[in-house]
Amino acid sequence: MALISIIMPVRNAGPFLSECLGSIRNQSITDWELIAVNDHSTDNSNQILKAHSKVDHRIKFIQNEGVGIISALKIGYQFSSGRFITRMDADDRMPSHKLEILYSILCRHGQGSLSTGKVKYISENALGDGYRKYEQWLNGLCDTNNHYMDIYKECVIPSPCWMMFRSDFEAIGGFDSDRYPEDYDLCFRMYAHKIKVEASHEILHVWRDHGGRASRNDENYADNRFLDLKLNYFLELDYTSSERLVLWGAGKKGKYLARILIQRNISFDWVTNNAKKVGLYIYDKKIKPTSTVAQSNVKTKIILAVANAAEQKEIVDSIEKSEGFLTIFKFC
Question: For 52, phi and psi rounded to 5 degrees?
Answer without folding.
Answer: -70, -35
